[in-house]
Amino acid sequence: MKPVLSVIGTGYLGATHAACMSSLGFTVIGIDNDAAKVAQLSRGELPFYEPDLENLLRAEIASGRLTFTTDFSAALSADVHFVCVGTPQMENSLAADLTYVRGAITALAPHLKSGALVVGKSTVPVGTAQALAAQLSVSAPHADLAWNPEFLREGFAIEDTLRPNRLVVGVTNDRAEEILKEVYAPILELGTPWIRADLPTSELVKVAANSFLATKISFINAMAEICEAAGGDVTILAEAIGYDPRIGNKFLQAGIGFGGGCLPKDIRAFMARAEELGAQQALEFLREIDAINMRARARVIDVVRSMLTSDLTLYKIAVLGAAFKPESDDVRDSPALDIAAQLHAAGALVTIHDPKAMASAGKRFPSLNFAESAQDCVSGADIVLHLTEWREYREIDPVHFKTLVKTPLIIDGRNALDRKKWVAAGWTFHALGRKN
Ligand code: UGA
Q1: Local structure of 169: helix, strand or coil
Q2: For ligand 1, what atom is nearest to the CA of residue 156?
Q3: How far is the CA of 183 from the centre of ligand 1 (A)?
Q4: CATH code of domain 297-431
Q5: CATH 1.10.1040.10 for the 207-289 domain, yes or no
Q6: Crossing angle for the helix pair 234-242 and 199-230, nearest 10 degrees?
């Protein structure tokens, strides 16, 4: 008999995990205290955009294996419980807010059957799992706790869940590892590397990985600043260093930097935790990584001012892209939306388009203007900013778009457009970190 699974918290991570585990043949109960979200998921509708996930969700609900509820007592029928609730940045500090994780464990504890395994997947500050294990040893001593960090990328959520490049489990005994091996058997059969660690190491793997990725992006953006100062080209530099397999060519795309619900908050929470541990010096460099990242946004605004005038009042600025990256409607800490909002605050008339993130961006900044299409967005614009590298924008015909704008000025904030084509069409094209 396959173990029955529950997934606590059905946001991005939880909804994906629930649908994917169901697709592997497990009975999965998704539990969330947000009744509207549960109702929506139960109808087979995703509250966010993720390629192919809605189809998978529908198929799994139709199979009868996947259900959603607000009732925590449903957990009683499950053997393994994945905790997938959010750990956002606290409002008044850099640290992660653990309210939802603690709340999930408290709500789950009375409904754990003997031998149940609670598996944390949320990104947490190191030491959290041990504290939760201590909490459980009082409230549900017959249950056990493990940690199993998640590395999925938005836009590739199904692929990264069903074919991850590694599985990492933090356990305190062999039984917990055996249960997790059984749950992940179909993925292990693909030859996926399996790493057993203790609880703190498994928590650290996640934040270390995200810190490394953030560092790579800020490194190349720092090189972009140097290229601009020295007359170099960061795209060629990135290609050239990327051929060294020790460096690798991934995550070296220079531009307006990283955003989203993970990288920015994770490096900040990591610094906050290091300080609590008295090891702040070790992560001092992450402060600089964060600063380089925020500077990339400010540099775009400086370029806009240099291409127009320093007073942006009443200039019409078209912003292509609001999501923090393509194939996502997530605008959490989105560099694109942040730049748009800053330009708006500076008095410019900003119009935004995004293929998927208009609703989420509108909710976040109701005072901004949104256009139904990229064409409408650029109509009459004094300058166009390309800030999220959707395929749709790469396919724009610059000759046609030149007829729509007031002035053919464009800043490519993602180094993703074909500069030659735009220049040939008569545009003044500014790319970050390249000769302009
Ligand atoms: C990130 C990690 O990549 C995942 O492995 C991790 O599981 C996830 O966070 C998480 O902690 O849950 P995600 O937030 O989906 O995934 O986004 P990424 O693909 O990492 O992109 C992050 C940001 O960096 C985006 O704003 C993207 O535009 C930017 N980026 C990425 C660059 O500016 N340059 C690059 O070369 C790559």
Answers
A1: strand
A2: 15
A3: 27
A4: 3.40.50.720
A5: yes
A6: 130
DSSP designation for 166: -
Out of 216, 263, 270, 432, mutate this one to test ligand 1's pocket (max ligand atoms within 8 Å of CB): namely: 263
Give the model confidence (pLDDT) of 315-340 as tens digits: 999 999 999 999 999 999 999 999 99
Distance, in Å, from the CA atom of 315 to the CA atom of 301, rounded to the nearest integer, reads 13
Residue 325, ligand 1, Cβ within 6 A: yes
Question: Which residue owns the Cα nearest ligand 1 atom 11?
Answer: 262
Can you point out the beta strands (E) in 140-246?
144-147, 167-170, 194-197
Q: Respond yes or no: is residue 20 known to be catalytic.
A: no
Contacts (Cβ under 8 Å, ≥6 apart) of 249: 238, 239, 242, 243
pLDDT tens profile 170-225:
999 999 999 999 999 999 999 999 999 999 999 999 999 999 999 999 999 999 99
CA of residue 13 to ligand 1 center, whole Å: 14
CATH code assigned to 5-197 = 3.40.50.720
Determine if the pTM surpasses 0.90.
yes
Give yes or no on whether 5-197 and 297-431 have one common fold.
yes
Q: Whose CA is nearest to atom 8 of ligand 1?
A: 153
Contact 210 CB / ligand 1 (< 6 Å) = yes
Domain ranges of the chain: 5-197, 207-289, 297-431
| Beta-sheet strand order (sheet of 28-31) | 66-69, 28-31, 5-8, 80-83, 117-120, 144-147, 167-170, 194-197
